[in-house]
UniProtKB/TrEMBL annotation:
Family: Belongs to the 4-oxalocrotonate tautomerase family.
Keywords recorded for this protein, A-Z: Isomerase
Enzyme's top EC category: isomerase
Classification via NCBIfam families: PRK02220.1, taut
Highest taxon of source: Bacteria
Record-linked InterPro entries: 4-OT, 4-OT-like_dom, Tautomerase/MIF_sf
EC number: 5.3.2.-
Protein name from the UniProt record: Tautomerase
One function term, GO molecular function aspect: isomerase activity
PANTHER family per UniProt: 2-HYDROXYMUCONATE TAUTOMERASE, TAUTOMERASE-RELATED
Domain 4-oxalocrotonate tautomerase-like: 2-60
High-level lineage: Bacteria, Bacillati, Bacillota, Bacilli, Lactobacillales
Stored Pfam families: Tautomerase
Active site, UniProt feature: P2
Length: 61
């Protein structure tokens, strides 16, 4: 049972997240031969004020 965890900043649409989950699942099925039903994808969205690059919060950019 492959489990894929994706951490990303909030702000994507439902449609974008849905496509990403489908694409990730397709790659796992194709590359490792897992069944679609066995692939689990966990999305962890975080607020832009909980992530910084180079000492600057993404919410301040």
């Amino acid at each position: 049972m492959p489990i894929v965890q994706v951490e990303l900043l909030e702000g994507r649409t439902h449609e974008q997240l849905s496509k990403m989950v489908k694409d990730i699942t397709d790659v796992i099925v194709a590359d490792v031969g897992a069944s679609r039903e066995a692939v689990h994808v966990i999305l962890r969205e975080m607020p832009k004020d909980h992530y910084a690059v180079g000492g600057v919060l993404k919410s301040d950019q």
